[in-house]
């Protein structure tokens, strides 16, 4: 077997399948694009679903990739097992209705055993197959696998529910008994068993069935191949490493971490080794996740990043590392992965900044968490308890980032256990909330055989023509091809069309279809791309239409013109945001409608009004500069050399369109644009808000809609000026300032009068002292403005030492009730607690409350219950 680096292994795998006619796909970002069912890209096949379910037919049905992925469903195992990771790379080769079992098996064996490629010893490889899959077993035998190296296993069937499914074959490598964690005669010491000797290195799925909603299986219209080989795992074999962490993918990160500590070396203490592994794993995951557009937050994928950073920080503390350190590992990760992912080093400064900010934030909360944990331990020991309750332990985990195992260690040091069942129950509640927040849609649909078979050529001419003739090639009604349609909804494909299909945030064109006589026969309501790329028109038919007939297709010109103005404006906005906020900002989604545009972008914090004003000014300056807008069609590498901006979430073909607005903006784009920025006229930001973890949204209008927006604002300002009786609009701010000063002065005078009135009431109320159970009580309703003045009366009472207990109530604005209870130091010492008293009487006014032993307050919604509450206070005192 050869000695190869991880970069060489990755490249060799891709080169092998390229030699077999596969297109090599670049790894998609970890943040899924247009899939609400996925938090992260979690496998190689996750990026292939549109091909496997038939919604898109690839140009080449043979594909291969090395796809970075994240899974965090059992994060607690990271560092404690030899091969568990949050982020990993999955090498895969895929056939979308092209080759099947024989070729997949033949090529797998060639890659693994050929001296030109991996050069594994055939006798060290073992195969598992599904018992009923006799074809797979036969093909493995034909390539030279010995019969005693093929095992049948019932669980070798890949099935995720409704959608594609089928049998699979797993390939295992025999690392030798010296690598095993079990005796050779242990029942689990076999390929596929729970052992360290036989390592699974590759899974080949033969996707040949549709799993139907009723639970039955039917053959797929197109059979597929989906394989997965973990790069980290296969690298450990090439480098003869005991675990994945001793390979060149992780060891440099561990060694860099060692230098931050100097006291505890990797390999000296198994428990501390876990911490090194966790740090190395999490450093990779968060570096790539942030680089792909995710940012730390309290929910979704942002919460995952925050949790990974905090776990790593806690393990850093176990190693004796003080202060922020994770951010220093970013360039180390970048150097390891540079061959395949040069963008990591390019973004290293930004990624490190994000991680450093998160580390600093966590270090600030860490002390509070430790204080809470120590307080919890002390409380449990005071009550002679034996374990920490699950709910507060989960709070430590969820709010302060304390891993369960860390809390268990602290508890164990104090001779206490942890209520792990209670913790698990709280964790389950959170997971159910998270699942409920995501879409219930299936992640992969059932193939549509009809649409994938339609390969009629269709030319889009809308870049230069908004009206053209086209021959109606295909009519689809209720998922069936028909020769004629007389009314209702249908999908249609023409050989030529000026209608833009929705893509890249730009909405589809609308318009009409006319017959040879100029009569309207259909209205186009939507246009989408068919699986083979044609523009498929959804139409409402109003007169008979026939396949093969020629029609005139007319785009709604006004609709189209407004859309293209807004589309060009989004490009100007994108660049302006980079200019003002920094190059780390990139597009996270957009919507280009005729009446407005919406633009989502990444940013660490909110955008100030001053920054928005700068952005708006820049865009308008570029509009008024009359910049020519040009389109260049070129190959993707030339476009990148030109400096064109590509969306991280998009995949591009060999030929791309680059849209340039003068020398200011240059982006990959297949949409429609104005010929000159002056056509946009005017740009106005309507709103800016947050829509997710580290993602902001700007909504804006242009042209006529921008003028109408400003005119409405002007009308409002004119009305305000008239109401303020100012002769000039320019004087309005000063007039408002004068009114605010007057209001402030009146409020101060009002407060002074209320305080004086409250004091006058106090002199009367405080005289009414009753004795209950040997304690002096003042209980009364007063007429004051709210809780603030009740507290002032309580302060007066306290300084004058007028009774043991004070209970005051007032009817506040809106029919609400405020209650306050105070107890003197002597009363508190005798066992009277204001908080307990107020909890007893607050329900009588329809509310609740609490507080300290000496002062408590409550609110309610039933003023008619005030008398009963005051009476109940005396009763409570009688009984306590």
Automatic annotation (TrEMBL):
Compartments in which it is found: Cytoplasm
Primary subcellular site in the record, as a coarse category: cytoplasm
Domain Alanyl-transfer RNA synthetases family profile, chain residue ranges per copy: 4-712
GO molecular function, one term: ATP binding
One Gene Ontology term, aspect cellular component: cytosol
Cofactor: Zn(2+)
Keyword Iron belongs to the record: no
EC number: 6.1.1.7
Reactions mediated catalytically: tRNA(Ala) + L-alanine + ATP = L-alanyl-tRNA(Ala) + AMP + diphosphate
Keywords: Aminoacyl-tRNA synthetase, ATP-binding, Coiled coil, Cytoplasm, Ligase, Metal-binding, Nucleotide-binding, Protein biosynthesis, RNA-binding, tRNA-binding, Zinc
Sites where the protein binds Zn(2+): 567, 571, 669, 673
One of the protein's GO biological processes: alanyl-tRNA aminoacylation
Presence of the UniProt keyword tRNA-binding in the record: yes
Cofactor comment: Binds 1 zinc ion per subunit.
HAMAP family: Ala_tRNA_synth_B
Free-text comment on this protein's domains from its UniProt entry: Consists of three domains; the N-terminal catalytic domain, the editing domain and the C-terminal C-Ala domain. The editing domain removes incorrectly charged amino acids, while the C-Ala domain, along with tRNA(Ala), serves as a bridge to cooperatively bring together the editing and aminoacylation centers thus stimulating deacylation of misacylated tRNAs.
Protein's UniProt name: Alanine--tRNA ligase
Organism field: Ligilactobacillus saerimneri 30a
Chain's gene name: alaS
